[in-house]
Amino acid sequence: MGQYGGIGGIGGIGGIGGIGGIGGIGGIGGIGGFTxxxxxxxxxxxxGYDATTTYGLQTTAxxxxxxxxxxxxxxxxxxxxxxxxxxxxxxxxxxGSLYVSEFLTRIGYEATEAGxxxxxxxxxxxxxxxxxxxxxxxxxxSQCAFVNDYADLRADRGAEITSQLGxxxxxxAMILGMHLGQHKDTFELITATQVAAAHAAMILKxxxxxxxPDQIDGRILPMIPTPGHGSFPSxxxxxxxxxxxxxxxxxxxxxGFTDLANRTAMVRxxxxxxxxxxxVAGVHYPIDTWAGASLGTSLGQAILGMCGRAGATAEARRYxxxxxxFTEHDFANEAAAMGVEVGAAIPxxxxxxxxxxxxxxxxxxxxx
Amino acid sequence: MKYQEREPxxxxxxxxxxxxxxxxxxxxxxxxxxxxIAGETSGIYTALMEGGEPQSDATMAVRLPPLWNPTEGRxxxxxxxxxxxxxxxxxxxxxxxxxxxxxxxxxxxxxxxxRAAFNPRFRVNFPIVPEAWVPVYNEDSAPxxxxxxxxxxxxxxxxxxDGLPFAHxxxxxxxxxxxxxxxxxxxxxxxxxxxxxxxxxFVNTGIDLLRADLGHDEPELYRQAGAIAAGMSELGxxxxxxxxxxxxxxxxxxxxxxxxxxxxxxxxxxxxxVQLPNTIxxxxxxFGKEMYMLSAIHYVFERASRIAAACGLDExxxxxxxxxxxxxxxxxxxxxxxxxxxxxxxxxxxxxxxxAIIMPTGNNFASEMxxxxxxxxxxxxxxxxxxxxxxxDKTSSYLELWFPExxxxxxxxxxxxxxxxxxLDLPGELDVSADPGTNGGDDGDPRRFIELEAGGEIIGxxxxxxxxxxxxxxxxxxxxxxxxRGQGRRAPSGLWHFALSRTATCAxxxxxxxxxxxxxxxxxxxxxxxxxxxxxxxxxxxxxxxHSAERPQAPTQTIPAQLGIISGYGxxxxxxxxxxxxxxxxxxxxxGRPAIYSGAGGLRTETGGDVRQWGAHSDVxxxxxxxxxxxxxxxxxxxxxxRARLIGTSCAAPSVARLMACNAAAGRxxxxxxxxxxxxxxxxxxxxxxxxxxxxxxxxxxAPPVAxxxxxxxxx
Lengths: 368, 716
Known about the structure:
The complex is a heterodimer of chains A (368) and B (716).
Chain A: H1 17-20, H2 51-64, H3 92-104, E1 107-114, E2 117-124, E3 127-133, H4 137-150, H5 154-163, H6 169-175, H7 180-208, H8 213-216, H9 235-254, H10 260-281, H11 286-306, E4 313-319, H12 328-333, E5 340-347, H13 352-362
Parallel strand pairs in A: 3-4
Antiparallel strand pairs in A: 1-2, 2-3, 4-5
Helix pairs in contact in A: 3-7, 5-10, 7-9, 7-11, 7-13, 9-10, 9-11
Chain B: H1 12-15, H2 18-24, H3 35-38, E1 44-50, E2 60-63, E3 77-84, H4 96-114, E4 121-125, E5 136-137, E6 155-161, E7 180-185, E8 193-194, E9 200-203, H5 204-214, H6 218-224, H7 245-254, E10 269-275, H8 279-282, H9 290-310, E11 318-322, H10 336-351, E12 355-360, E13 370-373, E14 382-389, E15 397-402, E16 412-417, E17 428-431, H11 436-439, E18 447-454, E19 457-467, E20 471-478, E21 494-502, E22 515-519, E23 536-538, E24 582-588, E25 593-594, E26 602-605, E27 611-614, E28 620-625, E29 633-636, E30 643-646, H12 649-665, E31 675-676, H13 688-698, E32 701-702
Helix pairs in contact in B: 7-12, 9-10
């Protein structure tokens, strides 16, 4: 196994010679689905061969050398210069770096304190995309009641919770009838979205530094480890809503499903469920989901803009947390009354690499 | 803390019984009760009244639920709720039990003014949560938003259960309208006005509107409908679960799904549903539920009359499934609930013969929770049985001993001894007779109480009471075996000895007389986090040899030739003994044998060794498991499209209800298409004692399978 082998990724277990041929087992994100670089980590990385093969290759080279006489090599032709035309020559993890670079060069953050209110802003292209206001300690204490109430559902949701510790890409894939043989590029678009969303969430989590529910209320006793980052916003909610936003756009443009409305509703319902499962597990307050859903939706829209999707703009959002439970219904219909202000639409310029993967993903429609 | 003697007007046991004394008294079991009793009182109580009509007075407002009483005759048992109008008592030491006792005394006195000969008694039940108390109750009417179904109904199927997914698509008719005509969520969040005294009522039009508005997001639908409320212990997040007991039962009894392809419910079968508070399944005492249950049955009957009247029809066939129960009780049809059920069934069957209440036989056949003693079991004048109380039980445990009807146990003593190594401060010895100290001072039932104390702390209560003036009962209540709920006391776990003794001058039991023992259910099947653990009985005299007489005669035989003292026969649902109730047992489809847990009616061994039935028995048996490796049967879950399996006689009963409702709608006899008794397996010896045991488990009729089994049943 190569040094990254076990982590796997889009391309397979790690791509060492014959073993790499198993392809697909490495998974879409389940195995490689750690927040951070997600399944980009090591995907299609060649690693090194095992010691026997390495030694065998050396003796083979010596053994075959007599067949090709000595002399200078003949010059070849250059690859195209600085163009996405070469993207499919690169290993997946390399493209992962390109997406991350494109995204990170456009975002920034600002932590502000005004009038006794602390907040953190995520900027995109210099403009404020999302602003999250820091919840007060009393609000966090009040929110613990919701977390305790949701604990009742742990037996019901246990399988979902433990299989959604990383990026829960499989769950989205099964709603859209996707598999690796036909949707390699759509999976890559999802991963790029998740990684971008995760980075943005981590930045705001760092700035806002909100304690997890189990630090406030010992009775919560989560069923999974509390992650090593702040509670607010929920990265799972951010990622899930970003993916739901991007996929909603993609499947519309696919023009490939006869039951598009159902699938779109299910994709959004899944985003809600993934996010709420974290509250069931005991690691997030409902307000974390409100913040994450707001952030994820705006980010998803920004990513669609980077993809060059026609007419895509990103709505700015500002969330002032208040003591509410989270549901998709409220987020879709009552968000203004529950603390989410939707601001101006920000135009987003297309970027080369996101546009490249978007075009590839568009070509993966099934045309049902 | 010692038990403080109450003034006569503050003795809850004067008006009610030993369970009420235990559950509502601070020094006794109250701290371990359901949160709404253990915590701050809502001041809104529920009860059954036997004899007389409850009436409001200056201190309290009485509400009667919708009652079905077509002749407006006097009812033997009346369910009612009452709200305290007085400010909370000034004396902080007055307990909830004393407050309730004062109210009951007041109700009794007003009833006695109108009907002097009566001395009403009560069963006090769980309080109502304030959010469910309807501000304006429009009595004697029903929502005018209800609309008559387009297809004239030919039968009504009703379900009383928990966690009901009333907006599920399984209940839509062929035009997309719901067949759920009326649905009462007894602990639903109240609206400003309602035609039910507490909770929330939905009628068909309202459900259709909800579905039109929010049918695409059912969890949101239930939330907006006040059917999900995390903060209310009676309601909670139950409908966020993938499946509930009630979703399974309602689906089997009344839903259409590809799971039930052979017995579709037509548009001419309307549905009435009542959702009980979660309290019902949480509590392990067998107490506290009756008012909700009886109100639910009355509501079903009352709304069924309205449906028929609105459609210009006579009373319609009505099949009511009630997959609930408890394990202890009289088992003779003479408990308050059983009398009320019998009265209702008899009265409606006289008008519409196709009226049935279907109940499961229970799941305690193999749980060692029942014992039968007769004179032959006494060693001269004593008998001792073991009661194994399990560690880490966070709820109270209960044992009941019932003397024969009309039997005077004067001279009998029961003695409870804790497990080895633990001593009670005073011996747990109780004379089974009236205590002149309480009985002489008031007008309550003859009764006697002692508290069990260890290290100065009360860990239990023993009582004897002449239940409803007809049968003596001994009841033991123990606090949890785990330190819990912030209490510094617990009962020791292990093998308790429950000894019966009598003076030499006592008359022996007649040959036909039995002493019957039941334990209450003490587990948590619906995962409501009560953290109960089931206790069981132990036959201390049983010889533990590998060749005991109770062993089957051959390895393939499971039915012994003789009955033990501790037996599943008689471990029948404690509220299912009304003569007119239809009791349903469960069998395994693949083997054609009764499920190992399926409750059965009582059997006794006669002097000559013959086995004879006593009491109520199974009337019909239905599939409760597909096979040993696929236990349970499938039905719908909460959300449209969800599925679940449920194990137990709870799911056998609604199969029967469904078949009966389909038969009634088609004008066929209710048991049309049912088979005769399950045949005795060829491996069992066809001798009378064995056949009698088998018949007690199966009942005389067998329902065809309702829920689809993907593995066909092997031929005979």
